[in-house]
Amino acid sequence: MTTDGSPPQADxxxxxxxxxxxxxxxxxxxxxxxxxxxxxxxxDVLAGSWIHFHLPWLRQWxxxxxxxxxxxxxxxxxxxADTVTEMKAAVARTLQSRRLTRALWGATSIFVVFTLFVSTxxxxxxxxxxxxxxxxxSDAAEPxxxxxxxxxxxxxxxxHGSRTFVVLTTPxxxxxxxxxxxxxxxxxxxxxxxxxxxxxxxxxxxxxxxxAALLTGLFAVDMMGAQTVRMQARAGDLxxxxxxxxxxRVLHALLLSxxxxxxxxxxxxxxxxxxxxxxxxxxxxxxxxxxxxxxxTRWIRTARPxxxxxxxxxxxxxxxxxxxxxxxxxxxxxxxxxxxxxT
Length: 343
Description:
17 strands; alpha+beta; single chain; 4-stranded mixed beta sheet; 9 helices; Immunoglobulin-like
């Protein structure tokens, strides 16, 4: 019995509860005093997330070296208790530093701004064993008759099946172009903050399509004198993306492509002869004069490379705005021939 007549157990329970509450309160006060802990944890989460999404090679390296944490835990367990206590106290004092707190909040702010303006494009070989070099093209205006110069490159081979381009972007995004050769370019890549882009070489670097628009003789009536015919090419679903807009003055074959096409050869001539013969249901000799006109070509440069599988619409209008012909078709071959008949 205690002096006031109550059992000892009845008095011990409140004292234990008070001690636990005091310990919890002291720990909470200690954590609140560690003002640098919050920005440190936030920076760790943000940096870890960005590395996970954008730097797979660094993520893989950190994963393979996680065994170092196990070694650190073993060494920590072997330290004397007094040493551990002193180290904990030193860490706690460091995390209470106002200067360190300000520095960590500043570093976190800088890192957030960094992630808004820096992103990545990962290029992988997709299981391809042939070495290939991927080039990132300049945003500068393209030189006449060519593609913009490369500003960066990465080599894919057996030892390096994945490469990462670190690029500048904006919070609204930025469109970049990549190629593996002057005639093999990937579709434009939209790069955004925090969202990595990915390309597979050579699957995403198919050679662009060249469209040969072959005008029939009736268009000559609309081109008499100084009159011209306007041609527009739109890709995709209507109203579509305008990829070419030009005027036509003679019955040349119009070659639509992003890069200068090769001139037609004897194989192309024979293909055009057969196509015109089938369309008009006449002998090839009767369409020979028309094909002879087509052998003189005119390059119409498209705003971007045309891709196999795309849907393209060609529209021809005269000077009065009357539609002379409209032809819609799918790009299924590297060289797509389309004979345009005036309506």
